[in-house]
Write the structure tokens for this entry.
Amino acid sequence: MSIRALINEDLIDLHLHGSNQLNVIEQMASMLERQGRIESKSIFTECVLEREAQVTTGFGNGIAIPHGKDETVKDTSISIGKLSNSVDWKAMDDRDVSFVIMLAIPESEAGTTHLQILSQLSGKLMDEDFRDSLMKANEKEDVLNLLSDCITEKNIG
Amino acid sequence: MKLIAITACPAGVAHTHMAAAALESAAKKNGVKIKVEKQGAMGIENQIKEKEIADAEALILAVDTAIAKPERFEGIPTVKVSVGEAVKNSQGLISKAIELTK
């Protein structure tokens, strides 16, 4: 199973300029919508914001992992935005966020292998070295390779 | 020292697995054994076995949803927090759980 079924170069923006959290989420949802991975940018954005309202996904160190699980998600997907500025995310450590990994999760449990990849990636984000390399990547290809390495390591317990 | 833990969040993908990884890494740093069961979108992963429940000295529940099969853990000293707390402060949680075993 390749990570490239979930993400590709057009789902990565390494120079994203967003005025605030909502704007960043909308821009990233647009990338997903353009590829037909979600049915509606506005429904998905709404869904991601609802999740943020429960608890922030800004888990510290300048990274956030917003996600939406909805029936309007057609393909399990990841989009990545490296911000040229940083924005408030009500993060757990109160730091502004400059790196965003957004997950689109379908309602049905059909794509279990895809969910497994998202799960592995989420766990891997607790690894400081991995986070640092990801945040420092300047080429889309490097981002894809880092993601791809972390899922082939089979780090699921 | 043997600890067990369960992580679960509403979507069952991101925080469930982030919290599990954070707890495993904090336990390792403290030289403590931990088995973390993840109750997520893929069902129960890394399920805690009966023998492990019998040997467990404390249970950490890092959950934002009702967990499956809670009756398995009756009588085990338990720390219960939100899944976000486990992501943010896994070290503190492991310390609390160790406290409970004393």
In short: Residues 14-29 of chain B form the longest helix (16 residues). The interface with chain A takes residues 10-11, 13-18, 20-22, 24-25, 36, 38, 40-42, 45-46, 64, 82-84, 87-88 of chain B (CB under 8 Å). The CA atoms of residues 53 and 71 of chain B lie 11 Å apart. Residues 2-100 of chain B form a domain with the Rossmann fold fold (CATH 3.40.50.2300).
